[in-house]
Amino acid sequence: MKILGIDTSCDETAAAVVANGKEVLSNIVASQIEVHQEYGGVVPELASRKHIEAINYIVHKALAAADVTFKDLEAIAVTNRPGLIGALLVGVAAAKSLAYCHNLPLLGINHIEGHIYANYMVHDDLTFPHVCLTVSGGHTLLVEVHEGWRYKVLGSTQDDAAGEVYDKVAKYLGLGFPGGKIIDDLAQKGNPSAIDFPRPMRNSGDYQFSFSGIKTSVRYFVEKARRAGIRIENGQVNGKNTDSDTVTVEDIAASFQAAVVDVLTYKSVAAAKSTGAKTITLTGGVAANSALRATLKTAAAEIGAEVYYPPMNLCTDNGAMIAGIAYQKYQQGLRDELSLNATPNGAIEEKK
Ligand code: KG4
Ligand code: ZN
Fold first, then answer.
1. Whether the CB of 114 sits within 6 Å of ligand 1
2. Containing H/E element for 260?
3. Can you give the pTM of this predicted structure?
4. Rounded CA gap, 347 and 81, in Å?
5. Rounded (10°) angle between helices 162-172 and 179-187
6. Ligand 1 and 289: CB distance under 6 A
7. Near ion ligand 2, which residues have CB within 5 Å?
8. Which tens digits make up the pLDDT trace of 214-257?
9. Whole-angstrom Cα distance, residue 332 to residue 149?
10. How high is the pLDDT of residue 38?
11. Which of 169, 286, 296, 321 most suits a substitution to test ligand 1, by most atoms within 8 Å of the C-beta?
12. Which of 18, 118, 177, 332 could disulfide-pair with 314, CB 3.0 to 4.6 Å?
């Protein structure tokens, strides 16, 4: 059973064809990074316009790459929440038109459920319940995932998403966009204990997150250093710079990353421990982070839990994860009307 999945929730125009919820026949993504790069973040209006330009081409490319036509499809699934409203609307309008023209069932999908599902597409031994940490440019949340794709949201960020903070810190340091990979690479050459950035809400006793305080601390640190005439420069190859008038970008990156990773790891492992889950799944763009993967694996092993993450093309925004979870929802009887609308703030529906 083949489903076309469409996602235009942020800055990627994505379409994919997936058979039986797992077999990825095609997974096409048109990135808008170059458009948003000069602004150091995603500009919603530009994102919508770019989606309009790309959507038909990307859908047809996904069908061609999967070697199917609309006649071979059983349904069309589209992300209709949460995300940038103008961006979401482009995907939803396209999916509705195609469903109407080709007389196919339409399914509106929650983007976060797609991210959560991504691990299931590649890890056949994934058991339930497991704890899923979704970390991307738009989201940071911990969810307990039960059989039948029933969820209990344990906690989420109270302000910025982790990826958003990576992007902002990269902007303060003039490193480019998106900042995650750049900071990750620099951090590997720096000293994570060089600067003691705060770990907001680490010991709050719940599973909520807050990252804007870390971001502000880095900003103040950078501004204070610059005012004091301290140069912020790339360090030596080993990341150490003995010049006392210089602080290395590598040390700032490593110390910032240590703070973010520490909080994410601590809460994810605490969640696995308290729920008894033996697997922690990692998903979203920040799941590519080398320190997060390594630190979480080590900490999870201490409580006998394993960490799973999908390949990069299923970690970041894509249509395959949408078609995948849509297959499960289709089996459960979900069908949407052509009156389906987009909404920016869709929380995950919690089912007992
Ligand atoms: O899932 P994604 O592609 O899009 C959203 O739904 O936001 O995630 C993009 C985010 C960006 O904020 C980017 O900086 C971050 O993921 N990211 C990383 C890494 N690679 C991408 N953050 C930390 N370390 C990385 N290696
Ligand atoms: Zn996403």
1. no
2. helix 249-275
3. 0.94
4. 8
5. 70
6. yes
7. 136, 317
8. 999 999 999 998 888 888 887 754 445 555 677 899 999 999 99
9. 10
10. 87
11. 286
12. 118
